[in-house]
Write a structure and sequence with these properties.
Blueprint (H helix, E strand, L loop, with lengths): L2 H5 L9 E7 L6 E4 L2 H10 L4 H17 L2 E7 L2 H9 L10
Helix pairs in contact: 2-3
Length: about 100
């Protein structure tokens, strides 16, 4: 662990991106932006506790997605995918 990591331990980390990665043998790196609507639908489809959190959980999910940029990522070379993640820019607020 790096000393600067420890010094920042009290800082709040906020989500910035939602990425749906998909490994495909031999594929070139392909990235496609997702709309917020399709991101909410996909995350809700993959959740397992909607019945527990109900409307409040759904609203929290929507707030999360509103604060993030969302992408589909297709890759076959992990080093290329990691380089793409390293180059991500902060979310663009207000896009759909």
């Amino acid at each position: 662990m790096q000393p600067e990591s420890l010094a920042r331990a009290g800082e709040r980390a906020l989500p910035a991106w939602v990425v749906f990665p998909r490994y495909e043998r031999g594929a070139t790196l392909q990235v496609q932006a997702r709309t917020r609507a399709t991101t909410v639908v996909e995350l809700a489809r993959n959740s397992f506790n909607q019945h527990v959190h109900g409307r409040a959980g759904f609203e929290a999910l929507v707030r999360l997605v509103d604060a993030c940029d969302s992408f589909d990522l297709r890759y076959s070379q992990l080093d290329q995918a990691l380089a793409w993640f390293d180059a991500l820019q902060p979310p663009s607020m207000g896009d759909s």
